[in-house]
């Protein structure tokens, strides 16, 4: 069963997904796409209008959003079959699976990552890239950049806010634990904080945020996690790139996971005003909400929506998370 990652080199969330694939020792290939729309490899060949990167294809199933991708990789490539895990047991026993998922989605994605966006020097970025991250405001006939309201605040306030959140990670590590949730091996929590930290560290004028005298445990953990990832990269075969055309042909020809694995929760569907076989559009609640993918609803549970989508290459099944996404009937 082929695993294909759609990504581009400077995408922070692509780095996160690559780290998860490394931790789980899953062989995969890449389709390198542009950092701006259009991406015909996705929108035309696969019929998926979702604009964010990365996407991950496992056979004929294509998964959107890194939180869902991480959860699905753990389910479809379990440790019981010889793969690694991103939810390892704590050193005292037991695994904080649910807590780590909440930490990943709501602390890292909703709190930490936007702080990094605040530090991006958008005045030095090509206007075309900024415009690509904008939403049309038809009433005002202009583009509105999708950004947190805090982008307008001063640099010292931005730095202090980031510094404060970093101090919470320092506090978590203050008892000398090796990994964030005191696990036997790095977990999804470590992968998530690591990719955001390295991304922020690579931005201009952020040196003061990585002061070893202020955050000794954090900086030691960051070095340890980086070394761990580099060691895994050296041990595993290099990742090969494939073209969008080749990837699409293989995806549409591949088998998909049986419908009953995800299932169809009639109670949830009724609450949402949906039923199996409905033509629906699915999109994010906020960022990217104007880019909605249309298809036939074939599966639904508390974690994900699954729709069948027709692209020029053929039929694929597209999965979206329930958290921060919604599905609406299309007449």
Keywords:
alpha+beta, single chain, DUF7962, 331 residues, globular, 12 strands
Given the helix and strand composition, which structural class is it? alpha+beta
> Could you describe the largest sheet, including whether it forms a barrel?
10 strands, mixed
Radius of gyration: 20 Å
Tell me the strand order in the biggest sheet. 7-2-1-3-4-11-10-9-8-12
> Cα distance, first to last residue?
36 Å
How many H/I helices? 11
- Total strands: the figure is 12
Give the overall silhouette. Answer: globular
Q: Report the helical percentage.
A: 25-40%
Q: How confident is the prediction overall: mean pLDDT? A: 89
Strand content: 15-25%
Uncertain residue segments: 136-155
H/E order of the elements? EHEHEEHHHEEHHHEHHHEEEEE
């Amino acid at each position: 069963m082929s695993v294909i990652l759609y990504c581009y080199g400077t995408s922070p969330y692509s780095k996160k997904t690559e780290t998860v694939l490394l931790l789980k020792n899953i062989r995969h290939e890449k389709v390198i796409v542009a950092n701006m729309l259009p991406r015909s490899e996705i929108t035309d060949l696969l019929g998926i209008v979702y604009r964010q990167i990365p996407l991950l294809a496992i056979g004929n199933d294509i998964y959107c959003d890194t939180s869902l991708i991480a959860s699905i990789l753990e389910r479809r490539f379990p440790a019981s079959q010889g793969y690694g895990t991103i939810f390892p047991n704590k050193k005292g026993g037991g695994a904080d699976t649910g807590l780590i998922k909440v930490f990943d989605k709501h602390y890292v994605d909703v709190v930490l990552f936007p702080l990094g966006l605040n530090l991006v020097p958008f005045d030095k970025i090509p206007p075309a890239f900024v415009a690509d991250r904008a939403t049309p405001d038809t009433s005002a006939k202009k583009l509105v950049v999708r950004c947190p309201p805090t982008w307008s605040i001063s640099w010292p306030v931005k730095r202090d806010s980031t510094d404060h959140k970093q101090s919470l990670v320092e506090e978590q590590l203050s008892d000398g634990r090796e990994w964030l949730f005191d696990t036997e091996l790095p977990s999804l929590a470590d992968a998530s904080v690591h990719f955001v930290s390295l991304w922020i560290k690579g931005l201009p004028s952020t040196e003061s945020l990585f002061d070893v005298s202020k955050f000794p445990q954090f900086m030691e953990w960051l070095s340890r996690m980086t070394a761990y990832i580099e060691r895994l990269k050296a041990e595993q075969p290099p990742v090969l790139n494939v073209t969008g055309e080749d990837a699409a042909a293989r995806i549409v020809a591949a088998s998909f996971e049986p419908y009953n694995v995800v299932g169809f929760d009639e109670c949830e569907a009724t609450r949402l005003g949906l039923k199996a076989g409905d033509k629906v559009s699915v999109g994010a609640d906020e960022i990217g909400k104007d880019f909605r993918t249309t298809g036939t609803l074939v599966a639904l549970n508390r974690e994900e929506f699954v729709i069948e989508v027709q692209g020029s290459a053929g039929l694929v099944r597209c999965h979206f998370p329930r958290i921060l996404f919604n599905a609406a009937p299309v007449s």
